[in-house]
Every structure is written in C-alpha cells, then in structure tokens.
Design goal:
The protein folds into 3 domains: about 120 residues, Tumour Suppressor Smad4, CATH 2.60.200.20; about 120 residues, no CATH class; about 80 residues, Herpes Virus-1. Helix content is about 55%, strand content about 10%. It has a 6-stranded antiparallel β-sheet with strand order 2-1-11-10-7-8. A 5-stranded mixed β-sheet has the order 4-3-5-6-9, with no helix packed on it. Helix 1 runs parallel beside helix 6 and helix 6 packs antiparallel against helix 7. The longest helix is centred in the last third of the chain and has 122 residues.
Amino acid sequence: MEELAKEVSSLSAEEGEETSKQNDGEIWCLKRIGKDSGWLQLFENTEVTIGRGLNVTHQILSVSCPLMISRNHCMFKQREHGQWTVTDNESLNGVWVNGTRISSRKPHVLQQGDLVRFGVPLDGSPVEFEYVLLHSSLDKIKDFLSKTARAEVKALTSRPKKSKRKFGTDETEPNNSKAKLYRMSNTDKFDGLPCHPATLPDQAGPSEPSGHFTQCSDSSQHLTSLKRYNENLKALKERMGATQKRATELEGQEASSLEQRQEMEALQEQMKLLQGELNSRQELARQSMEILKRNLCEEERRLAMERSQQKEDGLKKQLEEALKEHRKVIEELKHEREGFQEVLQAKDKELEVTKEEKERARAQKEEVVTQMTEVLENELQCIICSELFIEAVTLSCAHSFCQHCIADWRRRRDECPICRQPIVSQARSLVLDNCIDRMVENLSTVMRERRTALISQRKGERSA
C-alpha cells in the first residue's frame, strides 16, 4: 500500500512539474504559515471548497486528529468586485479569521493578509492548518502550491496557443495530402500503448471489493493504466510539439505553393485531433488518479477498522480471562463462606451448651445459697426474741442467745432456756457476729432498717 501511495505521489509530482511551465499571471492563494508547501490556490469565477472529503477542491487531512477537519469544512468564493469571502459549512471545529470564529452559513469578507485558521489547537500545540490570504505572481509561489492546486492549474492552462492560419486559396485538399502527412519524421507517429476504457470503474460501473487482495489487484491495475496514460500523454505531447514546430516553420515561410498550404491545413487538422485526444487522455488520467486516491483512502480506512477490530478482540479476550478469574475468586469465597458458616454454627452450638451449663450451675448455686440461708436463718436466730443474734453469747451448755435476751432471762432464772441446765459461764461469739453482719448486708432494706432500730432500742434500754 505504501508503494502504491509513492507511485501516486510521483505521478502527481510529474504532473505538477508540467503545470509549472504554464501561466505566468497573478493568482490568489492561501499561504500556509510555517510551511513551504501545501499552499492552496483560490480559483477565480468558481467556488473553492476545502475539507477532508473526496468531492472538494482542496483535500486536507489532519495528522494529529483525523476528525479536526470536516468533510466539507468551508467554501471560498470571489465576489464581482474581486473581494473574497469564506463561508463555514457548519464544521465541527469552525473557521477562525484573525483569531475570531465566524458564524456558520454566513459569508465573511476577507482582506489581503487576513489570517484564516481551520480547527482548534490541541494540548497547547499550535494549530495545524493556519493560512494567510495572499495575492502574488504564479512564478513566485508555484513551487509552494499543493498537488491538487497544481493539477487544477494544469487543467486550466494546458491549452496550447492556436497558430495563425494563412489560407491562400479555398481549393480542396488533393488526394496526396494525407500521404504527405504521414511522410513526416518518426516523432510524429504515435507509438504509445492503447488505452482500455474498460479498466476505469466509472465506465464499468461500481462494484464492491470482495476482499483485501481484490482491492490490491484493482489498485495495481489502476496504477498500470495510469502509467500507460502517462506514457501516452508524453507521446501525444511530443507529437503536438513536433506538429506545432512544423506549423510555425510553415507560417514563417511565404505561402508560395499549394503543397505548403495543404500541408499547413493538414497540420492544423492533426493538431486539433491531437488536442482532443490529449484532453481525453488527460481526463482519463485524472479519473484514474481519483480512483487510486479513493482506493487508497478506502484501504487505509479498512486497515484502521481491522486494527480497531483486532484491539476489540484482544480486549474481549482479556475481559473473558478477567471474568474467569473473577468467577474463580467468587467460587473460592463461596467455599470459604460455607466453611465459616459451619464454624459459626459449631460455635453457636458450643455457646448454647455453655449457656445451658452456666444456667444449670447458677440454678444449683442459687439453690445451695437458698438452702444455706434457710439453715443459717434457722440456726442463727435467738430462741427468746426470734431475731438474728445481736451481740451473740454462747453459754456453757453451747447454746447461743442475744446478750440482751440472756441477760434479761437470767434475772428471772439462771438456767438455759433450751436445756434447763444451770448456767455456769457465758462468752461472746465473734464468729457468729461476723457471719450475721455479712448476711445482713444481703438482706432487704426493710430488714436492715428493722435490725438497726432494734439495736438502737436495746442500747437505749441498756443506758437507761
């Protein structure tokens, strides 16, 4: 594909070199700032369109951003008094004149030296397509014009000057004039290869390519036919040059003989035929060039689509692999979760068993404490006052009573109220006092207040 592009570029360059030998007048053009090539010529009496499409006068393609330039970006047109206007065809990134974006679909008048910018800058870099309106001689700027502009200049200026006819008489051409026409030098004979119109897609009808190899073969055929047209054009130009040279020589001589006049007329007829054939061959070459450019653009587009498709396939594969890994991780987490649930269930069961055991132990403890309390309450009560011992006293017979109660009892009798044995001695029991004090701490508030009041009462009676 690169070789095909190089061939097209070389043929366009040859065509541009031939164009540079033509017109020498002043023209309007857009000088590209910072570039010594790619200048765009503005043709008078016609609408000059600029964009990235194929059906425009000047095709410009952005390298950094392919969509920076719209298909039909803008249009330049010259008014009757020679003033140029530019119209933005609703482009995406707009047309800027002297740093200001112009309105869409409204012609904007330009002056010589105005800065015209297509698109906007990217990432702080300067604008790719920035031009200045210039009016100068063709000889000075022809080397800087774009290839498209050179081809248009060639099409407009490739008409040869007509030689002056000198008719000495209106006699008809004799039968041997045709023979004299072909008795000229060998350079007048057309030895180029014939052109086959069937190779042009415009004449054969559009057809969809079946694949990459079909497009390459078609492009190769178009390139071969384009080379053949180029050779035929060179041969035709040589014939026209020789014919024009011969006609010039005959014009310089005096029309003294009938044969010279007849030869002059034959040369003029031949020049007309050659000119018509040259124009048709140029048109065929131009069409082939357009077909090659179109095929080149389609091939580049197809390659870009293939690359994007390959990237999409790679991304799909990566996504599928990532999904597989994700599923594996999910399965592993699921198994781990099931294991954790089993462990939690086992722990819950153990906890329930532990709670039951704790409840059972607590119940047993409470039962024991209750029994102990009942026993202590029964054993630590004074038989005289039916209250817990207050300053317990143990008699010689091992029975215990409150100190106040036994003292009051001994005033009447000096024997034990329980066993009726004589009281020989009595002693304070601190162990019973300490035990009773701890038991009182666990009693209710009413019981503690009652005991406190009873102790105070007995102390008061004692002091009295």
